[in-house]
Amino acid sequence: MRSTIAKTASIGILLAALGVGAAGVPAWSQEPEGDPAGGTWAVGIQANFPFLGISFRYWLSETVGVEVNLAPLPDCEFDYDPWRPPPEPEPGEEPPLPPPPVEEPTCPNALNLHFSARGLFKVSDNPRADFYVTAGPSFTLKFVQDKPMRAERAMLAVLGEIEISDWPIERVFPVIDYGFSINLLNLYDFRWISGGVGFHFYF
Predict the structure, then answer these.
(1) Alpha-carbon distance 118 to 126, whole Å?
(2) Nearest CA-CA partner of 70 in 107, 111, 106, 24
(3) How far apart (Å, rounded) are the C-alpha atoms in residues 70 and 175?
(4) Any bridge partners for residue 155, and if so which?
(5) Among 7, 8, 80, 94, which is 20 to 30 Å from 73 by CA?
(6) Count of CB atoms within 10 A of residue 155's CB?
(7) Residue 122 CB-half CA count within 13 A
(8) Right CATH for 30-75+106-202 from 2.60.40.420, 2.30.40.10, 2.40.160.20, 3.40.50.300
(9) Is the pLDDT of residue 200 over 90?
(10) Rounded to the nearest 5°, which phi and psi values hold at 19?
(11) What are the beta bridge partners of residue 73?
């Protein structure tokens, strides 16, 4: 009976020691799940259309991620258009006098706040570069003093992305985007071909 209790106690102590040893390993020493770049989230910059600005990425799994971009872009807003022809006078009316010269406002006097989000879907994984299919919306809000806020552009884009992993700088990965986008507010906006570059630092 005593030998059985001793064996049971010895096995319990051994399992406890193994458990303490495993718990003592720091969490950061284990490779996190998610993107092979070594982290589940990243921050960087996107210089492509329509996904512009400071970029934040989070990987939900090894093949699926999400990205949010935000870019404040200064702009100019003019109430007076010197190239606009004067209205035609009605029959029997005197022709209107030319409008007085208007002093142009100091620029920039407006702000375009560009916001975009997209999903990332990995379709190819190799040691040198990964290939993703990305899709998502973007829109621009324009703020002008003494005027209501308005949406100027709402885009929907599908892009392919190459993320270069064979890179001498650890955890910093450049990306190349190319694809198509459509302006949902103006279907005659034929800027369909989209693309650009960017980079992300993975934590």
Answers:
(1) 23
(2) 111
(3) 17
(4) 138, 183
(5) 80
(6) 22
(7) 17
(8) 2.40.160.20
(9) yes
(10) -65, -40
(11) 112
